[in-house]
Amino acid sequence: QGSEKAKTFVHAFLKRSMPKMKDEAIQDMLTRKAVVLEHYHKKKTKQKRKKTKGFTAKQRRELRLFEIEPEQQRYAIFLPLHELWKQYIRDLCHGLKPDAQPHMIQGKLLKADLHGAIVTVTKSKCPSYVGITGIILQEFKHIFKIITKEDKLKVVPKLNNVFSLELDGFISYIYGSKFLLRASERSAKKFKLKGTIDL
């Protein structure tokens, strides 16, 4: 190549390799006949991750995702669920033996999933709730949905109610006022033992 072509090529190459450098600086480098090339980092554009959006609470209500159809509100349908729950608790507590320590079982039950458990409202500030017995079908932050033997779906608030559940002769009490959590949140919570508990 001729000298002019070579000069033009080198100038263009340097301009492309070092885009931040001005033409005067490149020309100055060429006159010295020595060029130290610096590595030019191209800025990587971060790709934004698309978050998968679930349904909002309003959409879930509109779609009636958590509603149990009237024809499915039958106690007998959910008895197999109760049998599964009993086996789940036995496995969780390594068998409910007579010599098992009550506070250890109580601690496990506090974090256990209660869907399928048969509970009874033993104390309440509202007398009409006392005596309601049935299988827990759904647990929300503030309420239990319970199906009774009379095939009636009862919505019982946790607040100001005490529930009891019995399994293999072991009776445990749930103070609903201290239980205002979703099932998923409850499994990670550390419960403190308290001397006295009020409704």
From TrEMBL:
Any one GO molecular function term: ribonuclease P RNA binding
GO biological process, one term: rRNA processing
InterPro entries per UniProt: RNase_P/MRP_Rpp29-subunit, RNase_P/MRP_Rpp29_sf, Rof/RNase_P-like, Rpp29/RNP1
UniProt subcellular location: Nucleus, Nucleolus
Chief site of localization: nucleus
Record's keyword terms, sorted: Nucleus, Phosphoprotein, tRNA processing
Protein origin, superkingdom: Eukaryota
A cellular component term, taken from the record's GO annotations: ribonuclease P complex
Gene3D superfamilies recorded: Ribonuclease P/MRP, subunit p29
The UniProt record lists the keyword Acetylation: no
Function description: Component of ribonuclease P, a ribonucleoprotein complex that generates mature tRNA molecules by cleaving their 5'-ends.
Record note on quaternary structure: Component of nuclear RNase P and RNase MRP ribonucleoproteins. RNase P consists of a catalytic RNA moiety and 10 different protein chains; POP1, POP4, POP5, POP7, RPP14, RPP21, RPP25, RPP30, RPP38 and RPP40. Within the RNase P complex, POP1, POP7 and RPP25 form the 'finger' subcomplex, POP5, RPP14, RPP40 and homodimeric RPP30 form the 'palm' subcomplex, and RPP21, POP4 and RPP38 form the 'wrist' subcomplex. All subunits of the RNase P complex interact with the catalytic RNA. Several subunits of RNase P are also part of the RNase MRP complex.
Family stated for the protein in its record: Belongs to the eukaryotic/archaeal RNase P protein component 1 family.
Protein's name in the database: Ribonuclease P protein subunit p29
Origin species: Sylvietta virens (Green crombec)
